[in-house]
């Protein structure tokens, strides 16, 4: 039976996988920005830079709990990590909103951030709900995009985002029900599975390279 | 459904027209680029001078009219564009 510290260690290791995947996607997107000056890729790169730093901060906070010599376990840092993560999800949703506006659809209206009653609610709680909301929007738009393009990779990304969405929901639950320890581990596992699925286009990009005289 | 094109998409459309319509190797006229590019004359001439200035298109000056041909740098841009378009589409986005 895994002890509490074993579970914490697994959670931290998984956070660092998230860091690697996020920065890889951000790197490929940034290369795209350099070569094509595409604003879409700039938003994608920004989203994953924020997500990467968010996972990094959360991973370091977790390590701080295991290794007391690392003084990073303050609640401000925890909220800072969540804020970075939420900002990343916001940029991901924002990319879709801009895409929707360019295609003259009405789906962007869904991204209107709901008025959140902050009184009494903890900031971490609110950030988790917002993350869930942004990811959910990303799932809907990616699903719609799949219906339009029928591209298998897009369906895979929608699946990955769905897993991240469920993970984010569990993150919120784990804040509410802190005594259910397995929730936060399950949340990290689902989020990392989702992120690994998001890594697929990066792998395809790395393997396929740049096509000359590609299809129009 | 009709949709707006981003600037990078418009550039890719013009470059691919200049590449595909240049069947005789003598370049492509503005009329052909206008017809395929679906934009106004004023906007097209401004874009063409920008693309020539950045080295993506080559301008072949004739007696009366100029013709345009895609450059090696333009070909590389198109290749990168298609590759990153595929990448962005995976995330359900358009370049």
Explain how this protein is built.
The complex is a heterodimer of chains A (216) and B (95). By secondary structure, chain A is an all-alpha fold. Chain A has one domain: Rhopdopsin 7-helix transmembrane proteins. Chain A has helices at 4-36, 39-66, 75-102, 123-149, 152-176, 181-198, 200-208. Chain B is built from 4 helices and 3 strands, in the order αβααββα. Chain B has a 3-stranded antiparallel β-sheet. Chain B is globular, with a radius of gyration of 14 Å. The interface between A and B is large, with 47 and 29 residues.
Describe the structure using short key phrases.
heterodimer, A: 216 residues, mainly alpha, Rhopdopsin 7-helix transmembrane proteins, 78% helix, 0% strand, B: 95 residues, alpha+beta, Arc Repressor Mutant, subunit A, three-stranded antiparallel β-sheet, 4 helices, 3 strands, 57% helix, 13% strand, globular
Short description:
The complex is a heterodimer of chains A (216) and B (95). By secondary structure, chain A is mainly α.
What are the SSEs and their pairings?
The complex is a heterodimer of chains A (216) and B (95).
Chain A: H1 4-36, H2 39-66, H3 75-102, H4 123-149, H5 152-176, H6 181-198, H7 200-208
Chain B: H1 7-20, E1 28-29, H2 30-37, H3 41-53, E2 57-61, E3 66-70, H4 72-90
Antiparallel strand pairs in B: 1-3, 2-3
């Amino acid at each position: 039976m895994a002890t509490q510290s074993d579970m914490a260690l697994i959670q931290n290791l998984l956070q660092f996988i998230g860091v690697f995947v996020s920065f890889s996607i951000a790197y490929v997107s940034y290369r795209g920005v350099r070569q094509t000056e595409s604003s879409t890729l700039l938003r994608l790169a920004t989203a994953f830079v924020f997500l990467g730093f968010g996972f990094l901060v959360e991973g370091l906070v977790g390590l701080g709990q295991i290794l007391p010599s690392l003084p990073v376990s303050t609640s401000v840092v925890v909220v800072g990590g969540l804020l970075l993560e939420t900002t990343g999800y916001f940029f991901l949703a924002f990319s879709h909103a801009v895409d929707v506006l360019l295609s003259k659809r009405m789906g962007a209206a869904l991204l209107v951030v709901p008025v959140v009653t902050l009184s009494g609610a903890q900031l971490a709680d609110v950030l988790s709900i917002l993350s869930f909301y942004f990811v959910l929007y990303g799932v809907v738009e990616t699903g719609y995009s799949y219906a339009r393009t029928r591209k298998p990779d897009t369906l895979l990304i929608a699946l990955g985002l769905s897993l991240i969405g469920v993970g984010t929901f569990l993150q919120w639950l784990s804040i509410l029900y802190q005594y259910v320890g397995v929730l936060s581990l399950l949340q990290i596992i689902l989020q990392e599975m989702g992120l690994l699925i998001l890594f697929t286009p990066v792998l395809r990009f790395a393997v396929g390279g740049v096509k000359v005289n590609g299809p129009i | 459904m009709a949709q707006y094109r981003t600037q990078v998409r418009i550039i890719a459309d013009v470059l691919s027209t200049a590449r595909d319509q240049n069947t005789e190797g003598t370049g492509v006229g503005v009329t052909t680029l206008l017809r395929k590019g679906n934009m106004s004359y004023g906007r097209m001439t401004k874009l063409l001078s920008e693309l020539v200035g950045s080295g993506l298109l080559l301008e072949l000056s004739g007696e009366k009219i100029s013709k345009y041909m895609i450059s090696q740098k333009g070909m590389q841009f198109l290749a990168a564009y298609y590759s990153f378009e595929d990448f962005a589409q995976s995330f359900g986005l358009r370049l």
